[in-house]
Design a protein that fits this description.
The complex is a heterodimer of chains A (about 120) and B (about 130). In chain A, strands 1, 2, 3, 4, 5 and 6 form a 6-stranded antiparallel beta sheet that branches. Helix content of chain A is about 25%, strand content about 30%. Chain A has one domain: SH3 type barrels (Roll), CATH 2.30.30. Chain B is α+β, with helices and mostly antiparallel strands. Chain B has a single domain, classed as SH3 type barrels, CATH 2.30.30. In chain B, about 25% of the residues lie in helices and about 25% in strands. In chain B, strands 1, 2, 3, 4, 5 and 6 form a 6-stranded antiparallel beta sheet that branches. In chain B, strand 1 and strand 2 form a beta hairpin. Classes of the chains: A alpha+beta (about 120), B alpha+beta (about 130).
Chain lengths: ~120, ~130
C-alpha cells in the first residue's frame, strides 16, 4: 500500500512539473488577440512580436523585431528606419525574449494590415 | 468520500512539482544538454552574460560565471567580440552577482555559436592556461 502511494506521489510530482513547464504560465493576451503587438519599454525602446502574458514577473515576446535607425548618408539628414529581426546581434539570441513587467510602459495590438505586421509575416521563422 | 491520504500523497506532490518547476530552469542545469548562457540587459544599458538562477519568489536574480563585453580592438584577436570575466575589477568581487529584477530590461538566451559565446569560450581557455 505504501509503495503504491509513493508511486502516486512521484507520478503526481512529475506530472505537475511537466505540465507547469509546458504551460510556462502563459495567459491569453489581454488585449485584442491580434497576431502581433508593440511593446514600449521604460527606456524608450520598442519591440514588435508575439506578446505572451504570463503569471509571474516576466512576459514573453516571441519572434521579436525592432526598429533600427541607419547611419545618415549626409550630415544633417536623418538615417532611414529599418525593421530588424532580433537574433543577428553579437550574442545571437534565441527567438524568445523575457521582459520584466516593471520594464514595460504599454502594449498595443498591431493591425494585421500594418506595414510592420506584413513585414513580420514575411520574415517570421 | 473522505480520502485523507490524498493530501500528503497527491495534493502535496502536485503543489511541490508546480513550485519546483517555477524555480528550476531545466535547460540551465549542468547535466542537461549543452551549456545555457543568458544575456541580461539592464535598464541603464549595461549587459552581462552568464549562468542565471532566477527564482520568481524573490526580487533578485543571481548570475554566476559572469562576463561583459570588452574592447575587441585592443585585444589583437580575430574575434568579433571580446569579453571580460567579472571578478578582475578593482574591488575583485566574488562569483555570484545578485541583480535586482526591477533593474532588468530584457533577458535572452545567448546563441552558442554567437561571437559572444565564442569569446567567452576563448576567455575561459585563456584563464585556464593562466592558472
Amino acid at each position: 500500500m505504501r509503495g503504491r502511494r509513493i508511486l502516486i506521489a512521484v507520478v503526481a510530482f512529475a506530472a505537475a512539473f511537466a505540465f507547469t513547464k509546458y504551460w510556462d504560465f502563459v495567459l491569453t493576451p489581454p488585449i485584442g488577440h491580434a497576431k502581433y503587438q508593440a511593446i514600449f519599454l521604460t527606456n524608450g525602446q520598442t519591440y514588435f512580436g508575439r506578446y505572451l502574458d504570463r503569471l509571474g514577473p516576466y512576459v514573453k515576446l516571441d519572434n521579436a523585431f525592432y526598429i533600427q535607425q541607419q547611419a545618415a548618408q549626409q550630415e544633417g539628414q536623418q538615417g532611414d528606419l529599418k525593421l530588424v529581426r532580433r537574433g543577428s546581434e553579437l550574442h545571437e539570441p534565441d527567438a524568445e525574449m523575457l521582459i520584466p513587467k516593471d520594464a514595460i510602459l504599454f502594449i498595443e495590438d498591431l493591425r494585421p494590415d500594418s506595414q510592420v505586421s506584413l513585414f513580420m509575416d514575411k520574415n517570421t521563422r | 468520500m473522505k480520502l485523507p491520504w490524498m493530501l500528503p500523497w497527491l495534493v502535496a506532490p502536485i503543489l511541490a512539482g508546480a513550485v519546483v518547476a517555477t524555480m528550476v530552469d531545466v535547460g540551465s542545469l549542468p547535466f542537461v544538454g549543452t551549456e545555457k548562457i543568458s544575456a541580461v540587459f539592464f535598464t541603464d544599458g549595461q549587459a552581462y552574460f552568464g549562468h542565471l538562477d532566477d527564482n520568481p519568489l524573490t526580487g533578485t536574480l543571481t548570475m554566476r560565471d559572469v562576463y561583459y563585453l570588452g574592447d575587441a580592438k585592443g585585444r589583437g584577436t580575430d574575434y568579433e567580440a571580446s569579453v571580460v570575466k567579472r571578478g578582475t575589477e578593482v574591488h575583485q568581487p566574488a562569483d555570484g552577482m545578485r541583480i535586482r529584477r526591477d533593474k532588468v530590461l530584457v533577458i535572452e538566451r545567448v546563441g552558442l555559436t554567437s561571437p559572444v559565446a565564442r569569446a567567452i569560450a576563448a576567455q575561459r581557455s585563456l584563464d585556464e592556461r593562466a592558472r
